[in-house]
Specification:
Oligomer: heterodimer
Shape of chain A: globular
Order of helices and strands of chain A: HHHEEEEHHHHEEHHHHH
Largest sheet of chain B: none
Order of helices and strands of chain B: HHHHHHH
Structural class of chain B: mainly alpha
Strand content of chain B: under 5%
Helix content of chain A: 55-70%
Radius of gyration of chain A: 22 Å
Number of helices of chain B: 7
Number of strands of chain B: 0
Structural class of chain A: mainly alpha
CATH class of chain B: Mainly Alpha
Helix content of chain B: over 70%
Number of strands of chain A: 6
Shape of chain B: globular
Amino acid sequence: MPFDATDIGLSIVKIAIVLFMMLNITPIMVWVERRGSALIQDRPGPNRVGPFGLFQSFADALKFILKEDIVPARAHKWLYTLAPAFGLLPALTTIAVVPWGRSFKLPEKVWFGQRFFEGRPLFEPVVADVSAGILVVFALASLAVYGITIAGWSSNNKYSLFGAIRASAQMISYELSLTLAAVSVLLVAGSLRLTDVVWHQTGYFVLFDTVKIPAWNVFSPAMWISFIVFGVSAFAETNRLPFDFAEAEAELVAGYHTEYSSMKFALFFMAEYMAMGTMSALIATLYLGGWDIPWYNEPATWQGFVLSALFFLIKVVFLLFVFVWVRWTIPRLKYDILMKIGWKVFLPLAVLNTLVVAAFIAAGWI
Amino acid sequence: MEFAIFFFFAAVAVIFALVVVLHRNPVVGALSLVASFFALAVMYVLLEAPFLAALQVIVYAGAIMVLFLFVIMLLNLQHVAEPVTRPIQQFLGYTTAAAFGVGLLYYIVKYAVFEKLPDGPFHADAHTIGITLFEAYVFPFEMVSILLLAAIVGALLLSGRTYQKREAT
Protein backbone atom coordinates (compact mmCIF):
# COMPACT_ATOMS: atom_id res chain seq x y z
CA MET A 1 0.00 0.00 0.00
CA PRO A 2 1.53 3.32 -1.00
CA PHE A 3 1.52 5.91 1.74
CA ASP A 4 -0.78 8.74 0.73
CA ALA A 5 -1.05 11.62 3.19
CA THR A 6 -4.16 13.11 1.54
CA ASP A 7 -5.95 9.79 1.62
CA ILE A 8 -5.17 9.15 5.27
CA GLY A 9 -6.08 12.71 6.22
CA LEU A 10 -9.45 12.43 4.47
CA SER A 11 -10.09 9.08 6.16
CA ILE A 12 -9.42 10.59 9.56
CA VAL A 13 -11.81 13.46 8.79
CA LYS A 14 -14.53 11.01 7.70
CA ILE A 15 -14.07 8.84 10.78
CA ALA A 16 -14.21 11.92 13.00
CA ILE A 17 -17.47 13.11 11.41
CA VAL A 18 -19.14 9.69 11.65
CA LEU A 19 -17.98 9.11 15.23
CA PHE A 20 -19.19 12.57 16.24
CA MET A 21 -22.63 11.84 14.79
CA MET A 22 -22.81 8.38 16.38
CA LEU A 23 -21.73 9.54 19.83
CA ASN A 24 -24.23 12.37 19.79
CA ILE A 25 -27.13 10.13 18.82
CA THR A 26 -27.50 8.90 22.40
CA PRO A 27 -27.98 12.18 24.33
CA ILE A 28 -30.24 13.60 21.63
CA MET A 29 -32.28 10.41 21.30
CA VAL A 30 -32.70 10.13 25.07
CA TRP A 31 -34.22 13.59 25.04
CA VAL A 32 -36.38 12.78 21.99
CA GLU A 33 -37.50 9.54 23.58
CA ARG A 34 -38.53 11.13 26.86
CA ARG A 35 -40.19 14.17 25.35
CA GLY A 36 -41.73 12.04 22.58
CA SER A 37 -43.21 9.56 25.04
CA ALA A 38 -44.56 12.50 27.04
CA LEU A 39 -46.12 13.95 23.89
CA ILE A 40 -47.73 10.61 23.01
CA GLN A 41 -48.97 10.08 26.57
CA ASP A 42 -50.22 13.68 26.88
CA ARG A 43 -47.95 14.83 29.72
CA PRO A 44 -45.20 17.47 29.87
CA GLY A 45 -42.14 15.20 30.29
CA PRO A 46 -38.74 16.47 31.53
CA ASN A 47 -38.81 20.25 31.02
CA ARG A 48 -36.75 21.72 33.88
CA VAL A 49 -33.10 21.41 32.77
CA GLY A 50 -32.44 23.99 30.05
CA PRO A 51 -34.88 25.12 27.35
CA PHE A 52 -37.50 22.38 26.68
CA GLY A 53 -35.47 20.14 29.01
CA LEU A 54 -32.77 19.89 26.33
CA PHE A 55 -29.97 19.57 28.89
CA GLN A 56 -31.69 16.66 30.65
CA SER A 57 -29.27 14.26 28.93
CA PHE A 58 -26.27 16.10 30.36
CA ALA A 59 -27.77 15.87 33.82
CA ASP A 60 -28.32 12.14 33.23
CA ALA A 61 -24.72 11.68 32.08
CA LEU A 62 -23.39 13.52 35.11
CA LYS A 63 -25.49 11.31 37.35
CA PHE A 64 -24.17 8.15 35.65
CA ILE A 65 -20.58 9.25 36.16
CA LEU A 66 -21.11 10.04 39.84
CA LYS A 67 -22.81 6.72 40.69
CA GLU A 68 -20.88 3.94 42.37
CA ASP A 69 -19.61 1.26 39.99
CA ILE A 70 -20.70 -2.05 41.53
CA VAL A 71 -19.42 -5.48 40.51
CA PRO A 72 -21.52 -8.29 42.05
CA ALA A 73 -19.53 -10.54 44.37
CA ARG A 74 -20.16 -13.75 42.42
CA ALA A 75 -19.97 -12.29 38.95
CA HIS A 76 -17.30 -13.31 36.44
CA LYS A 77 -15.21 -10.16 36.84
CA TRP A 78 -13.40 -10.11 33.50
CA LEU A 79 -16.38 -10.82 31.31
CA TYR A 80 -18.61 -8.60 33.44
CA THR A 81 -16.30 -5.68 32.72
CA LEU A 82 -15.78 -6.54 29.05
CA ALA A 83 -19.45 -7.05 28.17
CA PRO A 84 -20.40 -3.36 27.74
CA ALA A 85 -17.41 -2.90 25.43
CA PHE A 86 -18.52 -5.91 23.38
CA GLY A 87 -21.94 -4.34 23.13
CA LEU A 88 -20.58 -1.00 21.98
CA LEU A 89 -18.12 -2.34 19.38
CA PRO A 90 -20.59 -3.45 16.66
CA ALA A 91 -22.78 -0.40 17.26
CA LEU A 92 -19.84 1.90 16.57
CA THR A 93 -18.28 0.06 13.63
CA THR A 94 -21.16 -1.00 11.37
CA ILE A 95 -21.84 2.56 10.20
CA ALA A 96 -18.43 2.58 8.46
CA VAL A 97 -19.71 1.14 5.16
CA VAL A 98 -22.85 3.29 4.88
CA PRO A 99 -22.46 6.18 2.42
CA TRP A 100 -23.80 9.45 3.80
CA GLY A 101 -23.55 11.90 0.92
CA ARG A 102 -22.90 12.40 -2.79
CA SER A 103 -19.27 12.04 -3.79
CA PHE A 104 -17.59 15.13 -5.22
CA LYS A 105 -14.21 16.24 -6.56
CA LEU A 106 -12.21 18.23 -4.05
CA PRO A 107 -11.12 21.65 -5.35
CA GLU A 108 -7.39 22.36 -5.37
CA LYS A 109 -6.44 24.59 -2.49
CA VAL A 110 -3.37 26.43 -1.22
CA TRP A 111 -3.09 26.55 2.56
CA PHE A 112 0.01 27.78 4.44
CA GLY A 113 1.97 27.88 1.20
CA GLN A 114 1.27 24.18 0.58
CA ARG A 115 -0.78 22.84 -2.30
CA PHE A 116 -3.54 20.45 -1.29
CA PHE A 117 -5.70 18.04 -3.31
CA GLU A 118 -3.58 18.08 -6.47
CA GLY A 119 -5.36 16.43 -9.37
CA ARG A 120 -8.69 16.88 -7.56
CA PRO A 121 -9.14 13.51 -5.79
CA LEU A 122 -12.69 12.19 -5.35
CA PHE A 123 -14.18 12.64 -1.91
CA GLU A 124 -16.35 9.58 -1.26
CA PRO A 125 -18.35 10.25 1.91
CA VAL A 126 -18.13 6.73 3.30
CA VAL A 127 -15.49 5.54 5.76
CA ALA A 128 -14.80 2.19 4.06
CA ASP A 129 -16.19 1.50 0.59
CA VAL A 130 -15.38 -2.22 0.57
CA SER A 131 -16.63 -4.61 -2.10
CA ALA A 132 -18.24 -6.88 0.51
CA GLY A 133 -20.33 -3.86 1.54
CA ILE A 134 -23.47 -4.88 3.32
CA LEU A 135 -21.99 -8.22 4.38
CA VAL A 136 -19.65 -6.29 6.65
CA VAL A 137 -22.68 -4.70 8.26
CA PHE A 138 -24.29 -8.08 8.84
CA ALA A 139 -21.02 -9.59 10.07
CA LEU A 140 -20.44 -6.91 12.66
CA ALA A 141 -24.10 -6.63 13.60
CA SER A 142 -24.20 -10.37 14.25
CA LEU A 143 -21.59 -9.80 16.96
CA ALA A 144 -23.97 -7.49 18.83
CA VAL A 145 -25.60 -10.49 20.48
CA TYR A 146 -22.37 -11.27 22.37
CA GLY A 147 -22.47 -8.08 24.41
CA ILE A 148 -25.95 -8.91 25.69
CA THR A 149 -25.29 -12.62 26.18
CA ILE A 150 -22.03 -12.14 28.06
CA ALA A 151 -23.54 -9.39 30.21
CA GLY A 152 -26.43 -11.64 31.17
CA TRP A 153 -24.31 -14.69 31.86
CA SER A 154 -21.44 -13.03 33.70
CA SER A 155 -23.59 -11.13 36.22
CA ASN A 156 -24.68 -14.46 37.74
CA ASN A 157 -28.30 -13.47 38.15
CA LYS A 158 -31.22 -15.53 36.91
CA TYR A 159 -33.11 -12.56 35.51
CA SER A 160 -30.01 -11.44 33.64
CA LEU A 161 -29.52 -14.93 32.28
CA PHE A 162 -33.13 -15.17 31.14
CA GLY A 163 -32.77 -11.85 29.38
CA ALA A 164 -29.57 -13.00 27.70
CA ILE A 165 -31.04 -16.30 26.53
CA ARG A 166 -34.13 -14.61 25.16
CA ALA A 167 -32.03 -11.98 23.44
CA SER A 168 -29.75 -14.51 21.75
CA ALA A 169 -32.69 -16.64 20.55
CA GLN A 170 -34.52 -13.60 19.27
CA MET A 171 -31.54 -12.00 17.54
CA ILE A 172 -30.51 -15.22 15.79
CA SER A 173 -34.07 -15.77 14.57
CA TYR A 174 -34.58 -12.29 13.20
CA GLU A 175 -31.12 -12.01 11.71
CA LEU A 176 -32.20 -14.56 9.11
CA SER A 177 -35.22 -12.59 7.94
CA LEU A 178 -33.24 -9.35 8.06
CA THR A 179 -30.49 -10.72 5.84
CA LEU A 180 -32.85 -12.47 3.43
CA ALA A 181 -35.01 -9.37 3.09
CA ALA A 182 -31.97 -7.34 2.11
CA VAL A 183 -31.04 -9.91 -0.56
CA SER A 184 -33.75 -8.71 -2.95
CA VAL A 185 -32.44 -5.14 -2.76
CA LEU A 186 -28.95 -6.36 -3.53
CA LEU A 187 -30.26 -8.47 -6.42
CA VAL A 188 -31.89 -5.43 -8.01
CA ALA A 189 -28.85 -3.24 -7.47
CA GLY A 190 -26.57 -6.06 -8.69
CA SER A 191 -23.91 -5.26 -6.11
CA LEU A 192 -23.07 -5.70 -2.45
CA ARG A 193 -21.56 -2.22 -2.30
CA LEU A 194 -23.87 0.21 -0.54
CA THR A 195 -22.70 3.11 -2.72
CA ASP A 196 -23.92 1.17 -5.77
CA VAL A 197 -27.23 0.47 -4.03
CA VAL A 198 -27.73 4.20 -3.51
CA TRP A 199 -26.67 5.14 -7.05
CA HIS A 200 -29.16 2.60 -8.37
CA GLN A 201 -31.95 4.48 -6.61
CA THR A 202 -31.11 7.96 -7.92
CA GLY A 203 -33.28 7.79 -11.08
CA TYR A 204 -37.03 8.01 -11.51
CA PHE A 205 -39.99 5.71 -11.95
CA VAL A 206 -42.38 7.25 -14.46
CA LEU A 207 -46.00 6.53 -13.64
CA PHE A 208 -48.55 6.64 -16.51
CA ASP A 209 -45.93 8.47 -18.61
CA THR A 210 -46.53 11.65 -16.60
CA VAL A 211 -45.88 11.36 -12.85
CA LYS A 212 -42.22 11.11 -11.93
CA ILE A 213 -41.50 9.46 -8.60
CA PRO A 214 -38.00 8.84 -7.22
CA ALA A 215 -36.68 5.35 -7.96
CA TRP A 216 -36.32 4.51 -4.27
CA ASN A 217 -36.76 0.87 -3.46
CA VAL A 218 -39.65 1.62 -1.13
CA PHE A 219 -41.69 2.88 -4.11
CA SER A 220 -41.00 -0.25 -6.15
CA PRO A 221 -43.89 -2.74 -5.84
CA ALA A 222 -41.47 -5.68 -5.82
CA MET A 223 -39.82 -4.32 -2.67
CA TRP A 224 -42.77 -3.79 -0.37
CA ILE A 225 -42.61 -7.19 1.30
CA SER A 226 -38.87 -6.88 1.64
CA PHE A 227 -39.25 -3.41 3.18
CA ILE A 228 -41.82 -4.56 5.74
CA VAL A 229 -39.86 -7.67 6.73
CA PHE A 230 -36.62 -5.72 7.00
CA GLY A 231 -38.24 -2.93 8.99
CA VAL A 232 -39.87 -5.21 11.54
CA SER A 233 -36.76 -7.38 11.85
CA ALA A 234 -34.76 -4.22 12.45
CA PHE A 235 -36.91 -3.55 15.50
CA ALA A 236 -36.26 -7.09 16.74
CA GLU A 237 -32.52 -6.83 16.07
CA THR A 238 -32.18 -3.63 18.07
CA ASN A 239 -34.26 -5.08 20.93
CA ARG A 240 -36.80 -2.27 20.76
CA LEU A 241 -40.43 -2.49 21.74
CA PRO A 242 -42.58 -4.34 20.71
CA PHE A 243 -39.70 -6.85 20.77
CA ASP A 244 -37.70 -5.81 23.84
CA PHE A 245 -37.61 -9.24 25.44
CA ALA A 246 -34.00 -8.84 26.50
CA GLU A 247 -35.13 -6.25 29.04
CA ALA A 248 -38.87 -6.78 29.57
CA GLU A 249 -39.12 -4.69 32.74
CA ALA A 250 -42.40 -6.27 33.79
CA GLU A 251 -40.98 -9.80 33.80
CA LEU A 252 -37.20 -9.66 34.22
CA VAL A 253 -36.51 -6.56 36.36
CA ALA A 254 -34.26 -5.06 33.67
CA GLY A 255 -33.13 -8.18 31.80
CA TYR A 256 -29.50 -8.57 30.85
CA HIS A 257 -28.29 -5.34 32.48
CA THR A 258 -30.05 -5.82 35.83
CA GLU A 259 -26.75 -5.95 37.74
CA TYR A 260 -25.05 -3.09 35.93
CA SER A 261 -24.67 0.38 37.36
CA SER A 262 -22.90 3.64 36.65
CA MET A 263 -21.10 4.11 33.30
CA LYS A 264 -21.24 0.40 32.42
CA PHE A 265 -25.01 0.66 32.36
CA ALA A 266 -24.72 3.88 30.37
CA LEU A 267 -22.61 2.05 27.77
CA PHE A 268 -25.44 -0.45 27.18
CA PHE A 269 -27.77 2.48 26.79
CA MET A 270 -25.45 4.10 24.27
CA ALA A 271 -25.04 0.85 22.36
CA GLU A 272 -28.82 0.49 22.06
CA TYR A 273 -29.29 3.97 20.64
CA MET A 274 -26.30 3.69 18.32
CA ALA A 275 -27.64 0.39 17.00
CA MET A 276 -30.92 2.20 16.33
CA GLY A 277 -29.01 4.90 14.48
CA THR A 278 -27.17 2.35 12.37
CA MET A 279 -30.37 0.49 11.58
CA SER A 280 -32.09 3.73 10.56
CA ALA A 281 -29.14 4.62 8.33
CA LEU A 282 -29.30 1.15 6.80
CA ILE A 283 -33.05 1.30 6.14
CA ALA A 284 -32.61 4.76 4.63
CA THR A 285 -29.80 3.49 2.41
CA LEU A 286 -31.47 0.29 1.26
CA TYR A 287 -35.04 1.49 0.80
CA LEU A 288 -35.32 5.27 1.04
CA GLY A 289 -32.70 6.16 -1.53
CA GLY A 290 -29.83 6.94 0.82
CA TRP A 291 -28.66 10.51 0.24
CA ASP A 292 -30.77 10.95 -2.90
CA ILE A 293 -32.86 14.14 -2.94
CA PRO A 294 -36.22 13.58 -4.68
CA TRP A 295 -36.87 15.58 -7.87
CA TYR A 296 -33.46 17.20 -7.74
CA ASN A 297 -30.18 16.44 -9.43
CA GLU A 298 -27.42 16.93 -6.91
CA PRO A 299 -24.46 18.68 -8.54
CA ALA A 300 -21.09 16.98 -8.07
CA THR A 301 -19.75 19.85 -5.99
CA TRP A 302 -19.41 20.45 -2.27
CA GLN A 303 -22.82 22.17 -2.26
CA GLY A 304 -24.39 18.98 -3.66
CA PHE A 305 -22.53 16.96 -1.06
CA VAL A 306 -23.75 19.11 1.83
CA LEU A 307 -27.35 19.07 0.56
CA SER A 308 -27.36 15.30 0.04
CA ALA A 309 -25.75 14.68 3.44
CA LEU A 310 -28.42 16.88 5.00
CA PHE A 311 -31.14 14.88 3.25
CA PHE A 312 -29.61 11.61 4.46
CA LEU A 313 -29.63 13.03 7.98
CA ILE A 314 -33.29 14.03 7.65
CA LYS A 315 -34.22 10.50 6.57
CA VAL A 316 -32.29 8.95 9.44
CA VAL A 317 -33.82 11.34 11.96
CA PHE A 318 -37.30 10.56 10.67
CA LEU A 319 -36.67 6.81 11.00
CA LEU A 320 -35.29 7.31 14.51
CA PHE A 321 -38.49 9.12 15.40
CA VAL A 322 -40.46 6.18 13.99
CA PHE A 323 -38.54 3.93 16.39
CA VAL A 324 -39.68 6.11 19.31
CA TRP A 325 -43.20 6.43 17.93
CA VAL A 326 -43.62 2.66 17.65
CA ARG A 327 -42.19 2.07 21.10
CA TRP A 328 -44.82 4.20 22.78
CA THR A 329 -47.69 2.98 20.59
CA ILE A 330 -47.47 -0.81 20.37
CA PRO A 331 -47.30 -2.98 23.53
CA ARG A 332 -44.87 -5.88 23.95
CA LEU A 333 -45.79 -9.15 22.26
CA LYS A 334 -45.80 -12.53 23.96
CA TYR A 335 -42.54 -14.43 23.60
CA ASP A 336 -44.00 -17.43 21.75
CA ILE A 337 -45.77 -15.09 19.32
CA LEU A 338 -42.45 -13.38 18.66
CA MET A 339 -40.86 -16.69 17.73
CA LYS A 340 -43.86 -17.76 15.68
CA ILE A 341 -43.82 -14.53 13.66
CA GLY A 342 -40.09 -14.77 13.14
CA TRP A 343 -39.91 -18.34 11.91
CA LYS A 344 -43.33 -19.01 10.42
CA VAL A 345 -44.22 -15.67 8.83
CA PHE A 346 -41.19 -13.49 8.17
CA LEU A 347 -38.69 -16.13 7.14
CA PRO A 348 -40.97 -17.78 4.51
CA LEU A 349 -42.06 -14.32 3.32
CA ALA A 350 -38.45 -13.22 2.91
CA VAL A 351 -37.52 -16.40 1.01
CA LEU A 352 -40.59 -16.11 -1.22
CA ASN A 353 -39.86 -12.46 -1.89
CA THR A 354 -36.28 -13.24 -2.85
CA LEU A 355 -37.47 -15.91 -5.29
CA VAL A 356 -40.10 -13.61 -6.82
CA VAL A 357 -37.65 -10.74 -7.27
CA ALA A 358 -35.08 -13.12 -8.76
CA ALA A 359 -37.73 -14.39 -11.20
CA PHE A 360 -38.67 -10.82 -12.14
CA ILE A 361 -35.03 -10.01 -12.81
CA ALA A 362 -34.61 -13.18 -14.86
CA ALA A 363 -37.72 -12.23 -16.88
CA GLY A 364 -36.29 -8.76 -17.40
CA TRP A 365 -39.14 -6.85 -15.75
CA ILE A 366 -36.92 -4.99 -13.32
CA MET B 1 2.87 -2.51 7.74
CA GLU B 2 1.07 -5.57 6.40
CA PHE B 3 3.65 -7.78 8.08
CA ALA B 4 3.05 -6.10 11.42
CA ILE B 5 -0.73 -6.57 11.09
CA PHE B 6 -0.29 -10.17 10.01
CA PHE B 7 1.95 -11.13 12.92
CA PHE B 8 -0.18 -9.30 15.45
CA PHE B 9 -3.37 -11.05 14.38
CA ALA B 10 -1.61 -14.38 13.87
CA ALA B 11 -0.45 -14.14 17.48
CA VAL B 12 -3.97 -13.21 18.59
CA ALA B 13 -5.45 -16.19 16.73
CA VAL B 14 -2.94 -18.65 18.20
CA ILE B 15 -3.14 -17.31 21.75
CA PHE B 16 -6.92 -17.39 21.82
CA ALA B 17 -6.93 -20.86 20.27
CA LEU B 18 -4.69 -21.97 23.15
CA VAL B 19 -7.04 -20.35 25.64
CA VAL B 20 -9.90 -22.38 24.14
CA VAL B 21 -8.05 -25.60 24.90
CA LEU B 22 -6.51 -24.68 28.23
CA HIS B 23 -9.11 -22.61 30.04
CA ARG B 24 -11.41 -24.38 32.51
CA ASN B 25 -14.48 -22.22 31.98
CA PRO B 26 -16.44 -23.29 28.84
CA VAL B 27 -17.92 -19.81 28.31
CA VAL B 28 -14.48 -18.21 28.29
CA GLY B 29 -13.40 -20.97 25.88
CA ALA B 30 -16.29 -20.26 23.49
CA LEU B 31 -15.60 -16.52 23.54
CA SER B 32 -11.90 -17.09 22.91
CA LEU B 33 -12.83 -19.16 19.88
CA VAL B 34 -14.86 -16.19 18.61
CA ALA B 35 -11.82 -13.94 19.04
CA SER B 36 -9.69 -16.50 17.20
CA PHE B 37 -12.18 -16.61 14.30
CA PHE B 38 -12.17 -12.84 14.17
CA ALA B 39 -8.38 -12.77 13.91
CA LEU B 40 -8.66 -15.35 11.12
CA ALA B 41 -11.07 -13.05 9.29
CA VAL B 42 -8.40 -10.34 9.39
CA MET B 43 -6.10 -12.76 7.53
CA TYR B 44 -8.66 -12.97 4.74
CA VAL B 45 -8.80 -9.19 4.56
CA LEU B 46 -5.01 -9.10 4.26
CA LEU B 47 -5.31 -11.59 1.38
CA GLU B 48 -7.67 -9.12 -0.33
CA ALA B 49 -10.72 -11.34 0.12
CA PRO B 50 -13.11 -9.18 2.16
CA PHE B 51 -16.04 -11.29 1.00
CA LEU B 52 -14.59 -14.40 2.63
CA ALA B 53 -13.70 -12.41 5.74
CA ALA B 54 -17.29 -11.20 6.11
CA LEU B 55 -18.62 -14.73 5.58
CA GLN B 56 -16.18 -16.09 8.14
CA VAL B 57 -17.48 -13.67 10.76
CA ILE B 58 -21.16 -14.07 9.81
CA VAL B 59 -21.16 -17.87 9.74
CA TYR B 60 -18.70 -18.84 12.47
CA ALA B 61 -18.59 -15.95 14.92
CA GLY B 62 -22.10 -14.65 14.33
CA ALA B 63 -24.13 -17.83 14.02
CA ILE B 64 -22.42 -21.05 15.08
CA MET B 65 -20.62 -19.77 18.15
CA VAL B 66 -23.73 -17.93 19.36
CA LEU B 67 -25.56 -21.26 19.35
CA PHE B 68 -22.65 -22.90 21.20
CA LEU B 69 -22.72 -20.19 23.83
CA PHE B 70 -26.49 -20.52 24.05
CA VAL B 71 -26.23 -24.24 24.79
CA ILE B 72 -23.38 -23.80 27.28
CA MET B 73 -25.35 -21.16 29.16
CA LEU B 74 -28.47 -23.31 29.22
CA LEU B 75 -26.59 -26.35 30.52
CA ASN B 76 -24.77 -24.21 33.10
CA LEU B 77 -21.59 -26.30 32.89
CA GLN B 78 -19.77 -23.94 35.21
CA HIS B 79 -20.03 -26.12 38.33
CA VAL B 80 -19.48 -29.53 36.77
CA ALA B 81 -16.09 -30.95 37.74
CA GLU B 82 -14.39 -32.96 35.02
CA PRO B 83 -14.25 -36.70 35.78
CA VAL B 84 -10.77 -38.00 36.52
CA THR B 85 -9.15 -39.61 33.48
CA ARG B 86 -7.12 -42.81 33.66
CA PRO B 87 -3.35 -42.66 32.94
CA ILE B 88 -3.74 -44.81 29.83
CA GLN B 89 -6.26 -42.33 28.41
CA GLN B 90 -3.92 -39.43 29.05
CA PHE B 91 -1.01 -41.29 27.48
CA LEU B 92 -3.02 -42.19 24.38
CA GLY B 93 -4.29 -38.64 24.06
CA TYR B 94 -0.85 -37.06 24.25
CA THR B 95 0.81 -39.55 21.90
CA THR B 96 -1.94 -39.30 19.28
CA ALA B 97 -1.82 -35.51 19.35
CA ALA B 98 1.98 -35.54 19.13
CA ALA B 99 1.94 -38.04 16.25
CA PHE B 100 -0.62 -35.98 14.39
CA GLY B 101 1.44 -32.84 14.94
CA VAL B 102 4.63 -34.48 13.70
CA GLY B 103 2.84 -35.87 10.64
CA LEU B 104 1.39 -32.46 9.85
CA LEU B 105 4.78 -30.78 10.14
CA TYR B 106 6.35 -33.48 7.92
CA TYR B 107 3.81 -32.96 5.17
CA ILE B 108 4.06 -29.17 5.38
CA VAL B 109 7.86 -29.27 5.12
CA LYS B 110 7.79 -31.83 2.33
CA TYR B 111 5.03 -30.46 0.12
CA ALA B 112 4.71 -26.77 0.92
CA VAL B 113 5.86 -24.54 -1.92
CA PHE B 114 7.52 -21.33 -0.85
CA GLU B 115 7.19 -19.20 -3.93
CA LYS B 116 6.10 -15.70 -4.62
CA LEU B 117 2.60 -15.66 -6.06
CA PRO B 118 2.12 -14.03 -9.47
CA ASP B 119 1.26 -10.36 -9.26
CA GLY B 120 -1.85 -10.56 -11.43
CA PRO B 121 -5.26 -9.46 -10.17
CA PHE B 122 -6.66 -11.80 -7.57
CA HIS B 123 -10.43 -12.20 -7.71
CA ALA B 124 -12.21 -13.23 -4.55
CA ASP B 125 -15.36 -11.11 -4.74
CA ALA B 126 -18.93 -12.33 -4.50
CA HIS B 127 -19.32 -12.60 -8.29
CA THR B 128 -16.30 -14.86 -8.85
CA ILE B 129 -17.01 -17.05 -5.84
CA GLY B 130 -20.66 -17.43 -6.84
CA ILE B 131 -19.82 -18.43 -10.42
CA THR B 132 -17.21 -20.94 -9.23
CA LEU B 133 -19.48 -22.38 -6.56
CA PHE B 134 -22.46 -22.89 -8.86
CA GLU B 135 -20.55 -24.08 -11.93
CA ALA B 136 -17.42 -26.02 -11.02
CA TYR B 137 -18.47 -27.10 -7.53
CA VAL B 138 -22.23 -27.43 -7.88
CA PHE B 139 -22.25 -31.15 -7.07
CA PRO B 140 -20.34 -30.93 -3.74
CA PHE B 141 -22.46 -27.87 -2.92
CA GLU B 142 -25.69 -29.80 -3.35
CA MET B 143 -24.29 -32.80 -1.47
CA VAL B 144 -23.47 -30.58 1.51
CA SER B 145 -27.01 -29.22 1.51
CA ILE B 146 -28.38 -32.79 1.57
CA LEU B 147 -26.02 -33.60 4.45
CA LEU B 148 -27.28 -30.60 6.40
CA LEU B 149 -30.89 -31.56 5.66
CA ALA B 150 -30.22 -35.05 7.01
CA ALA B 151 -28.73 -33.50 10.16
CA ILE B 152 -31.81 -31.31 10.64
CA VAL B 153 -34.19 -34.26 10.16
CA GLY B 154 -32.11 -36.30 12.61
CA ALA B 155 -32.20 -33.54 15.21
CA LEU B 156 -35.96 -33.21 14.80
CA LEU B 157 -36.40 -36.97 15.22
CA LEU B 158 -34.25 -37.04 18.36
CA SER B 159 -35.98 -34.09 19.99
CA GLY B 160 -39.52 -34.57 18.67
CA ARG B 161 -41.05 -36.38 21.61
CA THR B 162 -44.42 -34.76 21.06
CA TYR B 163 -44.80 -36.41 17.65
CA GLN B 164 -44.30 -39.88 19.11
CA LYS B 165 -46.87 -39.23 21.82
CA ARG B 166 -49.42 -38.10 19.30
CA GLU B 167 -48.98 -41.36 17.38
CA ALA B 168 -49.49 -43.45 20.50
CA THR B 169 -52.83 -41.94 21.47
